[in-house]
Design a protein that fits this description.
The chain is mainly α. It is built from 7 helices and 4 strands; from the N terminus they run H-E-E-E-H-H-H-H-H-E-H. This is NADAR domain-containing protein. InterPro entries: NADAR, YbiA-like_sf. It holds the Pfam family NADAR.
Amino acid sequence: MANMHHNHDSSIYFYHLNEPFGEFSNFYSAPIELDGHIWPTVEHYFQAQKFSHNKHRFKHIVQLSTPRDAFDYAQMHRDEIRSDWMDIRDAVMFKACMAKFQQHPHLKHMLLTTGHRTLVEHTNKDSYWGDGGDGTGENRLGFTLMKVRNVIKHHH
C-alpha cells in the first residue's frame, strides 16, 4: 500500500504528444469553443490573444492548420504583440486550459485521475511555461493545469 501511495505523489512529466499524458500539451488536438470562435488547439487560442488588438493577425491565427504554425506565426510577428501581454498571459492560459478540460470529458477524466500529483511540462525549450528541461524553469503550464484540476474537482 505504501508503494501505491508513493506513486500517487510522484510528478507526472508531459510534453511530447506521442508519450503518456501528451494530451496535456497545448499542441494536443482538442478543439475549444471560446470567445465566439472554434480553436483547433489551446495553442491557437493562446497565440491569437497576443494580437487581440490586431484583427488581421488574430484572424490569420484562427485559420492556421497546426499549433506549430500558430506558434511560429506569433514569433514572426512578436514585435506587434500587445503591450500588456506579460501581465495577462497566465490568465489567458488558464482560461484556455479550463475550456479544454471542461469541453472534453475524456480529458477532464484524465486530469482528475492525476489526483494530487505535480504536473510538469518537461522541456528544455521553455523555462517559463516548462521546467527548462532540468527543473530550473517555472513550469507555469504545469501549475496552470493543477489549478484547472483543482477548480474542476471542487466546482463540478
